[in-house]
Amino acid sequence: MEYLIVGLGNIGAEYASTRHNIGFMVLDAFAKAFNTFFLPTRYGEVAEVSWKGRKLALLKPSTYMNLSGKAVRYHLQHRSVPNENLLVISDDLNLPFGKIRMRERGSAGGHNGLQNIADLLETEDWARIRVGIGNDFGRGQQIDFVLGDLSEEEKAIVAEVSDRIAEGIKILVTQGPERAMNFLNTAPKKEETAKNCEKSSI
Fold it and tell me: N or C: which end of the chain has fewer CB within 10 A?
């Protein structure tokens, strides 16, 4: 059984540490944990991972964010992977920084990469994991914000988020999307503890 796991981002060193490239960062961490690496291929770079009898193709599109669907559609067809075995990881302005949300299907929510994938696949019935980057920007500054570099503190949070998503992906391919959503959409214990501390201090 094969899965296509897609991380969204923009190619090029100038984008490597930007908020819009969190999808790439998550896949880089996942590949590193399995001691594998990405190789150039058509419309992107792919690393392959095996986990408990499942084959995972990790794809970082080289088409730039707004044309991500071209790479996703090609690799789904090339590998004969059904839409139900597709997972897309992206940043999200509508979630607080570091917040994770997984859904089996849904709208693009204003994200150009997700929208292009939906347009080219002609369906929104595929799983996605959204990672919050917050929306701390003024009017007309959205592009500068999403293409801005992460701070060192934010990079540390992304590393923790990547570890959690890696566990979620393992659950997804072995136990199914519902179990993965239950895991990823529930706050980690330390986050719950922090929230409880905040409440007690009010």
Answer: C
